[in-house]
Design a protein that fits this description.
By secondary structure, the protein is an alpha/beta fold. The chain is about 30% helix and about 25% strand. The longest helix has 20 residues. The protein has one domain: 3-Layer(aba) Sandwich (Rossmann fold), CATH 3.40.50. The chain has an 8-stranded mixed sheet, sandwiched between helices. It has a 3-stranded antiparallel sheet with strand order 1-2-3, with no helix packed on it.
Length: about 240
């Protein structure tokens, strides 16, 4: 998740590690009654929204170019769960990934150490990868492996200036209930410009106002079945004829 310019620094608010319904952990902010991931299952949500309907979906569309890198932008980097799962799944699919995570307020190392993703995913052989993702310096491209690079950028995402750079965007901002300014036409126009033609943006959100904002800037938008605890989610495509 990422915070906007206009909200109180999240680290001033009380933060606690909680266990979600699938046994995986997340960060909870009681004052907002908001989590970094779904309380109905952090890992289940990540797999359903960002992997199944984002990464795997695009990989199937792009199966004829398996030697080319897939470029992914995450809004925002947060706990690193989406990046870590993408790394694991890219290994299975033998895909090369250039991953970019934007985050204005990075999670602390103390909090990272309390997250149980490696244990819950039974990915012990990659424990060092999850830690490395958080320990790497910001504003630089790092080779996690020869097939997976990570660039973390500490900024607000209305400062993103990328043009036609990404194949996939994981839009994982805090919800519109607490940050409505992050779900506007202005923000989605930045996302639209950042995507390559044929690229996709996926998000757990399904509000009508969000869908209309996406459509207003040129996206073709689908409603899809949501993860546990949500009826629907959205996938937006930068159509070839746009």
């Amino acid at each position: 998740m990422i915070l906007s310019h206009f909200l109180l620094d999240v680290f001033i608010l009380k933060r606690e590690i909680i266990i979600t319904s699938d046994g995986s952990s997340t960060i909870h902010i009681p004052e907002w009654d908001e989590q970094y991931h779904s309380k109905h299952g952090a890992i289940q949500e990540a797999y359903h929204v960002f992997i199944k309907n984002g990464f795997q979906y695009f990989n199937e569309l792009d199966s004829s170019t398996t030697n080319q890198n897939i470029s992914i932008l995450e809004i925002g980097f947060g706990t690193g769960l989406n990046a870590f799962i993408t790394f694991i799944e890219a290994k299975k699919l033998n895909r090369k990934i250039d991953y970019f995570g934007v985050e204005a307020y990075p999670v602390s190392f103390d909090e990272v150490e309390k997250l149980n993703y490696s244990k819950t995913l039974e990915s012990g052989q990659y424990d060092d990868v999850f830690s490395k993702m958080h320990n790497l310096s910001w504003e630089e491209k790092h080779e996690i492996t020869k097939d997976f690079s990570l660039t973390k950028q500490k900024k607000f995402f209305d400062e993103i200036e990328a043009i036609n750079q990404f194949n996939i965007i994981y839009f994982d901002a805090f919800g519109a209930r607490v940050q409505p300014e992050l779900w506007t036409e202005l923000i989605f126009l930045i996302m639209y410009k950042a995507l390559k033609t044929g690229g996709v943006l996926v998000t757990y959100a399904a509000k009508g106002s969000v869908r209309r904002a996406m459509q207003a800037v040129g996206f073709t938008v689908e409603r899809l079945p949501g993860p546990p605890g949500k009826r629907e989610m959205l996938r937006a495509t930068k159509a070839i004829n746009n």
